[in-house]
Amino acid sequence: MVERKPTMKFKRSLKSNTYGEEFKKQMNIDNFKKQNLLEEHSDDLEIINIESSEITKLLKSLPNEIQKKLYILTMQNYWKIKTLETSVRPMYHDYISYIEKQKAKVFYDNIHFMHLECNTIEDTKEWIPGCQCDFCLNNPMIKKKYKQKIYDEMLKDNTLVPYEKCVHCYDDNYWNSQFKLNYIDIIGTNEYYFIIAHTIFNPLKGGERTIYDQIKDQDSPLYFSNELISSL
């Protein structure tokens, strides 16, 4: 009979979640309205100052053809400089960069996609085999014996069913897969094969214990104290 995971309670609440706060502020419609209002007043004042300047009066005294040529030349030079100096980075760049860094934790740190801080808050997290996030590694409510039981089931029966139960997903989902496979079909033949493109998530990370690990584990029947080990 599969051991049930005990009910977990956390101090963190939905109200204290600050995920995406900076991006939400940027997209606040009131901020757009204020910025547009400031720009309109700023443009009006700038036009008044330009029209009253001495150089404007001198330019207006020139023939129309010369004014047109000066305007074209000035605008060409302006946009050359403006294009080089002005950042073309969109306002959502920082947010996209943040999401990409979060996704990288799946491949490099073996943190499950659902446990990225942009996906799931602490209150709703459940332990996932192999996940290296702080919740899965250090939550005292999740007993080591329960974790090892799930790992042993997967290793003994060579199955990922216990892992699929923990993530509540049984279909062919990219983020729940161990590997990204590429299908290779040899043209003109009936032969084909798969190659591993890259590793995605390893649900067995931390589950394979060596004899030495079991000797050092106080909950293991093979446990030896440090004093006994040093006397051997």
Measured distance between first and last alpha carbons: 39 Å
Please give the order of strands in the largest beta sheet.
1-2
Query: What's the number of structural domains?
Result: 2
The biggest beta sheet reads:
2 strands, antiparallel
Report the β-strand fraction as a percent range.
5-15%
Could you give the count of β-strands?
2
3D architecture notes:
- With 232 residues, this protein is mostly helical.
- The protein contains ten helices and two strands; from the N terminus they run H-H-H-H-H-H-H-H-E-E-H-H.
- It has two domains: 30-85, no CATH class; 95-231, no CATH class.
- It has helices at 21-26, 29-51, 54-60, 64-85, 93-109, 134-138, 144-157, 161-167, 211-216, 226-231, and strands at 179-185, 192-199.
- A two-stranded antiparallel ribbon has the order 1-2.
- It is elongated and about 95 Å long.
Please outline the helices and strands.
Blueprint: H1 21-26, H2 29-51, H3 54-60, H4 64-85, H5 93-109, H6 134-138, H7 144-157, H8 161-167, E1 179-185, E2 192-199, H9 211-216, H10 226-231
Antiparallel strand pairs: 1-2
